[in-house]
Amino acid sequence: MEQKITSHIVKGLIIAAILIVVNIIGQLTSYIFEDWYRWIGTVIYVASIIISAIYFSNQNNQNVNFGILFTHSFKTAAVITSILFVYTLLSVYFIFPGQITHFVQQGIDEAKKQGKSAAEIQEAVVMARKVLITSFLAGGLMINLITGALGAFLGAALAKKNPNFQPTQK
């Protein structure tokens, strides 16, 4: 009986769900604003992609090469990135809109320390909200893709491969 290969979509859904739970915990505890906490999601993301590649290699009895492992892992990362983008969109606008407010308030406090006038601060607040939302969405998308590519590369490099790889006919 041939072992069933776990789809990159299933892996991506599971990993994205874990990352969303970690983010929600951070939001609810306000740890999300701490620098150290932001790295937790990144470490989980990269480690899970590496584990995914190793698991895929094992499911194929190591009859894979670097390219196949990287492709499968990057597809997993693409699924995760897509789901996290939708979550970030919902989070910024509906679930945790206070996150943007927190960063804007930090900017206001800094502007007051610099002696800016109330009119200058008010004008900057409107622009800051737009820039922050765009940064969260575009930055999150790019960071997740780059981090996913790194995880896929490491996973493909670390997973056992068959040096005499021969593609199987299906």
From TrEMBL:
<feature type="transmembrane region" description="Helical">
    <location>
        <begin position="136"/>
        <end position="159"/>
    </location>
</feature>
<keyword id="KW-0472">Membrane</keyword>
<feature type="transmembrane region" description="Helical">
    <location>
        <begin position="12"/>
        <end position="33"/>
    </location>
</feature>
<feature type="transmembrane region" description="Helical">
    <location>
        <begin position="39"/>
        <end position="56"/>
    </location>
</feature>
<feature type="transmembrane region" description="Helical">
    <location>
        <begin position="77"/>
        <end position="96"/>
    </location>
</feature>
<dbReference type="InterPro" id="IPR025250">
    <property type="entry name" value="DUF4199"/>
</dbReference>
<keyword id="KW-1133">Transmembrane helix</keyword>
<dbReference type="Pfam" id="PF13858">
    <property type="entry name" value="DUF4199"/>
</dbReference>
<keyword id="KW-0812">Transmembrane</keyword>
<protein>
    <recommendedName>
        <fullName>DUF4199 domain-containing protein</fullName>
    </recommendedName>
</protein>
